[in-house]
Amino acid sequence: MTEVTPPALDISHLSVNFENGSGELQALDDVTFQVWPQEFVCLLGPSGSGKSTLLRVLAGLVPPTRGEIRFSGDHPPRIGYVFQHANLMPWRTVIENIMLPLELQGVSPPEARRQAQTWVERVGLSGFESAWPRDLSGGMAQRVAIARALIHDPDLLLLDEPFGALDALTRERMGAELLHLWQSQRKTVLMVTHSISEALLLADRVLVFTPRPGRVSLDLTVPLPRPRSDDLRYTLEFAHLARQLRQAIG
Ligand code: ADP
């Protein structure tokens, strides 16, 4: 018999309703999909299609109204979460922000600092250990947020438009850096983006969501070989996939 790898994440008939003053608002409707270990999945769709809500449900911040979520593994999953804005603590330096999750886990400060130093280097911030968040560019702040999300070795990395507030060139560079990091760390990743080309450059699969209530209208496996470089954007295959996603978004 062949061993079948269980999905890292199994979402089954998930619906989420919110109470709003005049009644209920349905954000997600009967969403079912699975994510495989170490897979990089992008979520695309118009604003309001429930993509952030889905991440918040996975992080345990919003309860599902109906349906089920199952994580593989014998412990509750550790989640790393990165938002559009880095949300760094302004009174802590770069390295102190990165070591925070370890401190909260009870790791001793010298050990937390040692591990944070490794992450400072991995995300290209050597020399900025003692800088304050207010002195960082948007891209640098997001690097700190990504390091902070990865330092406690999460089972699942949730990225909610992490580069949405950056200029186009910084965004491209950050995408390439994230890809590089993912290739060395191999986390299971769910990332919300509005950018079709970002999704195609990064993801193994792209899920397209319908306007509210969000349902999965397309589950596209990205057949582009890895490692992927920016030049892929100019190929016919890329254009063909981009058109498919564009049409699915509507
Ligand atoms: P997306 O990330 O795709 O832009 P969201 O998940 O942010 O979409 O939002 C989906 C819908 O749910 C939107 O109409 C939004 O206004 C609504 N919504 C999100 N969070 C709440 C909440 N806590 N209370 C009420 N409505 C909410």
From TrEMBL:
<dbReference type="GO" id="GO:0005524">
    <property type="term" value="F:ATP binding"/>
</dbReference>
<dbReference type="InterPro" id="IPR027417">
    <property type="entry name" value="P-loop_NTPase"/>
</dbReference>
<keyword id="KW-0547">Nucleotide-binding</keyword>
<dbReference type="InterPro" id="IPR050166">
    <property type="entry name" value="ABC_transporter_ATP-bind"/>
</dbReference>
<keyword id="KW-0813">Transport</keyword>
<dbReference type="InterPro" id="IPR003593">
    <property type="entry name" value="AAA+_ATPase"/>
</dbReference>
<feature type="domain" description="ABC transporter">
    <location>
        <begin position="11"/>
        <end position="236"/>
    </location>
</feature>
<keyword id="KW-0067">ATP-binding</keyword>
<dbReference type="InterPro" id="IPR017871">
    <property type="entry name" value="ABC_transporter-like_CS"/>
</dbReference>
<protein>
    <submittedName>
        <fullName>ABC transporter ATP-binding protein</fullName>
    </submittedName>
</protein>
<dbReference type="InterPro" id="IPR003439">
    <property type="entry name" value="ABC_transporter-like_ATP-bd"/>
</dbReference>
<dbReference type="Pfam" id="PF00005">
    <property type="entry name" value="ABC_tran"/>
</dbReference>
